[in-house]
């Protein structure tokens, strides 16, 4: 069955096209800095927002029109597989990602859930073999069900902890079955409401225990995907243990996980943490821990995770510049953890929204590549830190100075002149690269 019979495969037609269902900037085969655009970006379609989001919000009922809804949950799940791979093929996306509950009904028991997962992932594997589309990453949803009210790995209930461990084991089995390149942990409720009844260290110790179990199990079954932690502040717990990239890296290093774990970073999560997306990527890069990206954007006027499709070229350019500085993002990728707006409720909007996001990142990639080729930002930084390239600065960097020698130097050179950053001019020049 074809779910989008009137829409052909989306092709690159250039910026002057009037065809809504065409790329204006994303040319998968275009070579940028010696590598095809598709290989720089490694686009992945996110199963959850694409297939299960219904357009409801706290003030309104579902509005999305979806033709894959069947008479039973399993029929709907099977229809979704067909529709999803049709979307991926039409967009030319080579990767996808999902939570376990996105693809299969939870059923009445854990055993039934696992049976449903086996049946649906059999279908997914068939579609992967038919299309060549690969699994970027999968993960376990351990935050939506009421059992995870007080967390999963950070729970106060040992039976809940065991249930979460079973979901992770199944997730790794599925990852091996489908050849997943990464496996993500997003601690949606790994946090706390109040310290009045919380043992913070005990809860974080237990989270680390589960991660180490996952590492050991992956080694046991001969499947070692890149493990990723995804930082997110505030939402839904008031105090999330994985607040931002720096907090999460502190956790990784404290528990000796840096050899196995990197970060999956999301633009909207950066906003909620009070950071820019490029800041979070730069933090991860400084620890050699940049793993993968969730491409979306938030609304600066709203204080929650709106997961809008990315259309801001300025922000996306600075994010991709950091990716280029990292030498790329593989085996990670860029998945669209984005949902269509409530007013975009037609089936075709799923394709139009992804086209917008892919075109935005394509424009951003070309701008970031030009910045790198011209060494525009490199030269700014070299000039800013030039005083550390010679004289006393070079000696400081070479660890040849101490507090006594620097005091002697400062007493003899206490008339200091600073240079202006001319940052307004710099930002104006940056616009020249974008438009």
TrEMBL record:
Mg(2+) 2 binds at residues 266, 269, 305, 307. Mg(2+) 1 binds at residues 230, 266, 294, 337. The keyword Cytoplasm applies. InterPro entries: Xyl_isomerase-like_sf, Xylose_isom_bac, Xylose_isomerase. Its main location: cytoplasm. It catalyses: alpha-D-xylose = alpha-D-xylulofuranose. The active site is at residues 99, 102. GO terms for molecular function: isomerase activity. Its cofactor is Mg(2+). PANTHER family: PTHR48408, XYLOSE ISOMERASE. HAMAP family: Xylose_isom_A. Homotetramer. This is Xylose isomerase. It comes from Enterococcus innesii. The lineage of its organism: Bacteria, Bacillati, Bacillota, Bacilli, Lactobacillales.
């Amino acid at each position: 069955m074809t779910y989008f019979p009137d829409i052909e495969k989306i092709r690159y037609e250039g910026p002057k096209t009037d065809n809504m269902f065409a790329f204006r900037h994303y040319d998968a085969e275009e070579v940028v800095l010696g590598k095809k655009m598709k290989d720089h970006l490694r686009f992945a379609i996110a199963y959850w927002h694409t297939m299960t989001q219904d357009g409801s919000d706290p003030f309104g009922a579902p509005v999305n029109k979806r033709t894959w809804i069947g008479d039973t949950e399993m029929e709907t799940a099977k229809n979704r597989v067909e529709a999803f791979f049709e979307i991926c093929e039409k967009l030319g996306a080579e990767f996808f990602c999902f939570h376990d509950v996105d693809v299969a009904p939870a059923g009445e028991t854990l055993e039934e859930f696992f049976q449903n997962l086996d049946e649906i992932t059999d279908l997914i594997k068939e579609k992967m073999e038919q299309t060549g589309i690969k699994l970027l990453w999968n993960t376990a949803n351990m935050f939506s069900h009421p059992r995870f009210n007080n967390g999963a790995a950070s729970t106060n209930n040992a039976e809940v902890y065991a249930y979460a461990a079973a979901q992770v084991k199944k997730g790794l089995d599925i990852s091996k079955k489908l050849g997943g390149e990464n496996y993500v942990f997003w601690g949606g409720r790994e946090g706390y409401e109040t310290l009045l009844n919380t043992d913070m260290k005990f809860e974080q110790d237990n989270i680390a225990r589960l991660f180490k179990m996952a590492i050991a199990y992956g080694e046991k079954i001969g499947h070692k995907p890149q493990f990723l932690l995804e930082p997110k502040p505030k939402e839904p717990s008031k105090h999330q243990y994985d607040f931002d990239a720096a907090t999460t890296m502190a956790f990784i290093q404290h528990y000796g996980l840096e050899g196995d774990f990197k970060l999956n970073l999301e633009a909207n999560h950066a906003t909620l943490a009070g950071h820019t997306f490029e800041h979070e990527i730069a933090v991860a890069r400084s620890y050699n821990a940049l793993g993968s990206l969730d491409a979306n954007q938030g609304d600066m006027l709203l204080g929650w995770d709106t997961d809008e499709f990315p259309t801001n070229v300025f922000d996306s350019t600075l994010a991709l510049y950091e990716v280029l500085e990292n030498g790329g993002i593989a085996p990670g990728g860029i998945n669209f953890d984005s949902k269509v707006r409530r007013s975009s409720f037609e089936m075709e909007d799923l394709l139009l929204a992804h086209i917008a996001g892919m075109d935005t990142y394509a424009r951003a990639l070309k701008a970031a590549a030009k910045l790198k080729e011209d060494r525009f930002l490199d030269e700014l930084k070299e000039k800013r830190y030039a005083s550390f390239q010679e004289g006393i600065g070079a000696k400081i960097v070479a660890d040849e100075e101490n507090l006594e020698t620097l005091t002697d130097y400062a007493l003899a050179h206490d008339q200091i002149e600073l240079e202006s950053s001319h940052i307004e001019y710099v930002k104006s020049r940056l616009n020249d690269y974008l438009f």
